[in-house]
Here is the input.
Amino acid sequence: MNAQIIDGRKIAADIQNTLKEKIKKQTGIPGLAIIQAGDDEASTIYVRNKLRAAADVGIKAVLYKFPESVTEQELSALISSLNKDKNINGMIIQLPLPAHLDEEALIDSIDPEKDVDGFHPLNIGRLQNNSPQALIAATPKGILYLLENTHISLAGKNALVIGCSKIVGRPAAMMLIQKGCTVTMAHIQTKNLPELVKMADIVISACGCPEMVKGEWIKEGAVLIDVGINRLNGKLCGDIEFASAINKASYITPVPGGVGPMTVAMLLQNTYEAYLKQNQN
Ligand code: GUN
Here is the structure.
């Protein structure tokens, strides 16, 4: 079998074009605030991509960039003022934050209706309850969109999620359960990963270990979603050994150009949805 490649770049571009048309028809302009503390290299690239894509669809995105030494009080004061700002419909704190800052306390202080990252406990609870009010984290929302857009049936499938972060693994698992998958979560302490991969119809890997998942472990015809963005010998690669996995899978996402662009598209989608909700009479 030679897997079909799921083109996240094209699917994200289609979403963004649709959003752009919808936003043109609005009387106002959706506003997104991005808070970045420090100079993490990957964060700077992600933030740049988010700013560019927002401008392209007609969302006014504002970057609040602070030095590594920023205090929690300073960020807290900014969040309170953004919570009250009618021109700001969504806000995100780019992670990771410098270690001296209390990430949980800061996220908890964001107005849940502006939490377009879906990291606030109220939105996590809403997702758990399958509530339509939930703002859902962009990466797992993008993954589900890729699966559904590719017409991959989910009900009754064995799905393996590798990595249980709050940004990807946990919400992805919750969404797959709601679609009828039998979900297994693997993490750093999991002992029998090759056996778990061999049983999986769908593998979602978000562990950040370059090419850890070997092609020989993959079940014939499995669907592979690779969230990893790693470097190996100077080259970008995912968590899945692409060159060997492509011969076993039915569908596979590339790195780059798979899940990454979907994260950006779904952040913009969430910002638009938050804008609509905040402006309905
Ligand atoms: N860091 C890595 N992924 C993300 C994300 O989706 N949102 C934020 N805020 N930070 C991240």
Notes: The pocket of guanine is lined by residues 92-95, 117, 138-139, 167, 263 (CB under 6 Å).
